[in-house]
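Q: What does the predicted 3D structure of Serine/threonine-protein phosphatase look like?
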Amino acid sequence: AFKAAVLIQQWYRRYVARLEMRRRCTWRIFQSIEYACEQDQIKLHNFFSYLMDHFTPSSSKERDFISRMFISGESLKEAELEKYCDYESMEVPDSYTGPRLSFPLLPDHATALLEAFKQKQQLHARYVLNLLHETRKHLKQLPNISHVSTCYSEEVTVCGDLHGQLDDLFLIFYKNGLPSPSKSYVFNGDFVDRGKESLEILIILFTFLLIYPKEVHLNRGNHEDHMVNLRYGFTKEVMQKYKVHGKKILKMIQNVFCWLPVATLIDQKVLVIHGGISDTTDLDMLEKIQRNKFVSVLRGKKPKQSNRNVEIQETNGEIKAEADPAGNEAALSLCPQPQPTQAPSMANKLEFSRWVRQTVQEQIEWCRRLVDISESEEEELTYSSVVSLTDLDGPCWTRQEEWKQILDILWSDPMPQEGCRVNTVRGGGCYFGPDVTGKILEKYNLQFLIRSHECKQEGYEFCHNRKVLTIFSASNYYEIGSNRGAYVKLGPDLVPHFVQYQANKTAHTLTMTQRQGFPVALISRVEESAFRALREKLFAHTSALISAFKAYDKDNTGRITLSNWATAVESVLHLGLPWRMLRPQLVCSTADGMLEYKSWLDNLAMEQRSQEHIQSSLLEVIYRNRSNLETIFRIIDRDHSGLISFEEFHQTWKLFSSHMNIELTDDGINDLVRSIDFNKDGNIDFNEFLEAFRLVKQSQ
């Protein structure tokens, strides 16, 4: 009996270990593909940035197009935005049966919204724009770092990424209760993208923010960025739900995103940020940055060429501008230092105060012109601008330094090794080690950090000696059963208490008998989904894989060793996966341990062709480039109409041809665009765009 018990125990442990290994491998596949996609997004953006840096518009028409295409989010000033998003002129028809909002908002409005969204109802565009307008007004008055105290509420609940999964938000409110004066919430960014109900989540969160401004706090995440939204679905979602007023809603949301605070401090001891930190993170600088300047964190604004070599130095209380020998000294004459007028008598305090304010403002404007920091909006003083005015004797940071602070906060990830290095996996932010965490905690007298940004199998995870806590609230993120969601509650003792969940209707309806085998079934289902995605990735790089395999097949036998197969695949895909461990799920080896790679690739092609009847080589290229093509399409389609006009295509092609040194006349471009417009409606939709790409590749 004893031997039998030991045998069963050994068998069970091996079984559980194999299940865990399968789960971890599946997880690595999903995560590697996700991060590779983010890297592609940043590479694509860098490509467009490079084009912009090396393209000189030949006319005011081209200059206007470039301005609309890449910096339209920063160009709308206060009055223009109000006029563009005029919700008061919109009429709500009598036939509308959805919720109605009136301001100031009351708790009943939030309850009505929750019920309406559960019934799949849609809020009228007038109320959406009105809500965004009020939210923007509120956010502009908030500091860059929000401060929360457990003294005023029993506990503070921190939620991580939601990514458009409304069921998870409903489940959090069901388990933990709605926001109220006694129940504070911190939502730590990434409210949108990937999921299908991102806009509903924003509406709910903004509604509670306005009802309970002291109890609800929102941090900005890396997906609260319109350049990221172009790729990951939020832009498309808004335009599909609001076909008439979608452009106005997107414009307002874009402006609201840049006003979101970037961090939250709980009891001055727990720092809540979306991504992470770096060895250059400076909370004092973060407090004073004008955060609304960074409409897209992916787009760091570069200084103009004429002022690139101008330096500002402070000597004996006077600010002097100097240009280095290689610089443009003429820049100094363009912005002479203003001379202060005669100071009025101290007896008249009001007059003296006005004189000080005017003199200070003139000096600030002069400094801005020297370092090319221009006002993005002419508007009333905000919290951050007041902070800047009250700390005139402090250090002066460059735009690049400020941008890096925001980028690191939103995009960084922790790593187990010491030090700080560039995050090459995501393509943005950095990896920070436990030593960097320790220094930041010690410098600002903090207990620990809470961050999100990474999906965790259990919904949360500690690292760096329990000094960094990752919290992720979107359950079933990759596939049903792939991960739990979680939120964390902090009381006055700041001891974290976790609540885990899975918003999965399938799991809730299982009988007890079915539940006993459910983990195995779920792992199999998630595993199948992961390997399907991995096979698509392999197929998309068929040509590169053949070249890599041939490098090991010197005799051109069509066969390579399994070890060489694993090395070659990693050299092409750069996913960092344990290919030898994954091999049994991907390839069938021969008796002598060799792989016939041509037949293996043919099998991959057959699997994909069964889904889409397109020539294999074309399908490979489309699989590899579809996300980039769709993002390029949406960048060109600046009005988010789902159509590219002939004019938009014409100007974009001139941008590409200028960079690629392709000589093409205006008539040639017009002929090209007419040939792509297959249905001859005067516009190009995405299917025509993709079809043209496919046909061009086929002709090659």
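A (community wiki): The structure tokens above were generated from the sequence. Residues 82-300+397-501 form a domain with the Purple Acid Phosphatase; chain A, domain 2 fold (CATH 3.60.21.10). The chain has a mean pLDDT of 78.
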